[in-house]
Design brief:
- Helices cover 83% and strands 0% of the residues.
């Protein structure tokens, strides 16, 4: 497609809301996934650290 102005580009031939809305939702979902993965990683590391501390205390 050829667009003659930025407004036509963002309108995407009448499908701009769908196109840009899809991009927006994808960015939000990927951001949420990144955040949740980070939280799960931190929780797993914390669990491992607690188990190592308990193991050290039991061996004393």
């Amino acid at each position: 497609m050829n667009w003659t102005s930025p407004a036509e580009f963002f309108a995407m031939g009448g499908y701009g809301l769908y196109v840009w809305g899809s991009f927006g939702i994808a960015i939000v979902v990927l951001g949420a996934e990144w955040y949740l993965l980070r939280q799960r990683r931190l929780a797993a590391l914390s669990l491992v650290k607690r188990r190592l501390i308990l193991r050290e205390e039991e061996s004393r």
